[in-house]
Amino acid sequence: MERSSIVSGRRVFLIPLIGIATLSAILATAAIAPVVVTGAVASGSDSPRAALTTNGSSDWFTYLGNYNRTSNGTNDSWLTQQNAKSLGVSWTYTAGQTLPNGSAAVYNGIASSTTVVAGTAYFGSWNGFEYAVNVTTHHLVWSTYLGIDSFAPKCGPTNNIGVSSPPTVTNGTVYLGGNNVTGGFDAAFYALNASNGTILWSVPTGNMTKGYYSWANPLIYDGYAYIGLASNCDGPLVQAGLLQINLQTNLTTPNHIVVHRFNTMPTVNGKEFIGASIWASPSLDAGNNTIYVTTGNPPAGTSTESPPNPQNYSESIIALNASTLNLESFWQIPQHETVSDGDFGAGATVVQGVPVKGSPETLVVAGNKDGFVYAWNASDVGRGPLWATQTGITIRELISPAAYGGGLVYVETPALTIGGVSAPGGIFALYPNNGTIAWEEALLGRGIGAPLYADGVILAEAGQFIEVFNGVNGQIDTEIKCPSYFVSAPSIAEGYVWAGCENGMEYALELSTHTYTVKFTETGLPLQSTWGITLAPYSGSPTVVNSTTTTIKFHEPNGLYTYRITPIPGYHITPGSPPGPFW
């Protein structure tokens, strides 16, 4: 069965039966490929949702849903393998704003993953604004300008980059990284009032003219915020590290200051070495009070051994004590195995309860641009990987954090070769105890954001598409398309799947209850001849209908289907004209 993209019009299948009869099957597009039905795209102009009645709905308070960074939304039990084919666009919100100087924003793309708490969805745009949108009414609650980084070369479609950092929302406060509100040089870590967007306070994180930019989501834990320092696509590299900022009110430590900093490159004889950016969000194993970060490459022309270990932590997985940021252990890609621009651009995923040699263990999993996905024992990453699985990528852009659920680890990749066939992206399901591939599938676009797991369903952002898979066997259920590109991890909360697109639209997806009529018609068989059709979704049970009339009808929800004509004695199926299966 050919995988279909989103189109308008009709799909026509011609299946002639040689003899004295010809059978033709005419299927509406809705039954053979996903249909996107959206409300108005302007904020507040579509019909409000009367009430949130979705069973099992919950919040998504931070990037990837939790501090283990597992991207597991099984608590939102409304999305299952049985109904995933009916997932479609419910409504959208368009980010568009006039800048404080009165000019229109240059670019409104959304690269920030969405956080959803207490009926409000929070996300940032590259126009420099952080948005809060009401989940029920779909109206804007507030938008707050956090500045644009217009210094130095950038990656992406514009040199003016606003907010990429996904927010963490807790205790009535929105925490995220941003730029400079007044147009100054220093990027900053911000705390906003969750109700009205007022800036409560900020802490400088680095001079943008020297290359500093806030990509990642902050970890908020035990009265502190942890923020990774990185450059804006190596242009230029910066002296990177992890900041620990005090959030507590007490008499011994001033509020909102950096109390500890772990540098990923050293200062030697007064010289600050640059590189080893912490691109991704810190992860946490709360039981061991350990934070895990991954790092990028050292400067061009140097190696992971220059300056010498242990002060050079480039291309490493690092375990730090959460209270002090003291080093617990680290593992670095061996020099002879490094590749050009070999970042750990993907953050670490903490996977608990994995049976290893008969005992449950906590593992840490992360992918590297070298094309390998690695797993370490969380108790001592310095012992080296338990396993390393190669994905076969052809472009060094493996920057997708992993998702975990249903006993499998899921990782997206950019362009690669699967089964000898080139594809723009791919998704892998791995057994966490040994890294063996359970299944792998090509994607319609490059995989950048982390996949989302929800009760046996996997959603992968792939270029213009969000593809929905059966998490057990990798079968495709449906796909959703935007006019530009999805680049951040999807979220699931409060009855919707959330995803921002680079066209500046925030998409809210839910299950469609609408069904479509699918009609097959035969001509030429003798009267009262029995013929039949089996119509099967990519996931779920097939439906068989037999008839002695000239028409068979199905009433099915939106999705991808295959069909089979029951053999008829005296007739055989051959290709028709124009050739099938459809045009």
For the sheet with most strands, the description reads: 5 strands, antiparallel
Q: Low-confidence runs (pLDDT<50, min 5 residues)? A: 1-56, 575-583
Number of helices: 1
**CATH structural architecture of the largest domain:** 8 Propeller
Number of strands: 46
Strand content: 35-45%
Structural class: mainly beta
Q: How many domains make up the coordinates?
A: 2
Distance between the termini: 13 Å
Keywords, please?
four-stranded antiparallel beta sheet, disordered N terminus, disordered C terminus, single chain, 583 residues, five-stranded antiparallel beta sheet
What do you see in this structure?
1% of the residues lie in helices and 42% in strands. It is built from one helix and 46 strands. Strand 35 and strand 36 form a beta hairpin. It is globular and about 95 Å long. The N terminus and C terminus are likely disordered.
